[in-house]
Amino acid sequence: MAKKKKNLFERFANWATNATGSSTAFIMAIGIIIVWLVTGPVFNYSDTWQLIINTGTTIVTFLMVFLIQKTQNKDSKAIHLKLNELLASHAGASNRMVDIEDLTEEELDRLHKFYEQLSDLAEEEDDILCTHSIDAAEENHNLKLTGHMTKKHYVDAKAVRNKSKQGK
Questions:
Q1: Is the distance from CB of 131 to CB of 125 less than 8 angstroms?
Q2: Of 49, 70, 137, 167, which is least packed with CB atoms within 10 Å of its CB?
Q3: How far is CA 36 from CA 22, 24, 31, 39, 47, in A?
Q4: 80 Cβ partners below 8 Å, 6+ apart?
């Protein structure tokens, strides 16, 4: 998938997230606090001296909340898409699980109870392979692989790959 050029805010958000999450940023923050503490006696620990650190930390915290939330939203969306791809590509997985993050809390609770029941049933078994068979997983894999190898996009990609190997 080709990468699109990111807009200015997205580039800034990525840069700021990486920068503020670094060791250098942490050391700088400690340095600022040390400078502030050292200047306390110079300003007689006045209200203005205290207001400087309070205002500074409030502004930084306020801005960081939005920056962190943007980064979290993007990461969450990417993780959901990756999980959806895994679910969609696995023959044994239920496609009903794709996009379940859009369900209500009540619907999610019902699904959770269903999987708790499955877990309880699995715990009653003496043999872990009884409910999660490796043989079944291998069989599913072979079925998917065999079916996948006959699809046009796979055959075309393999032909291109073989052609590029011959050219080298």
A1: yes
A2: 167
A3: 22, 18, 9, 5, 13
A4: 99, 101
Question: Rounded to whole angstroms, how far apart are CA atoms 100 and 110?
Answer: 12
Chain CA centroid to CA 98, Å:
16
Q: Are 122 and 132 in contact (CB under 8 A)?
A: yes
CB atoms within 10 A of CB 60: 13
pTM: 0.57
SS3 86: helix
Which structure tokens are listed for 46? 């006045």
Q: What is the token pair recorded at 50? A: 């205290």
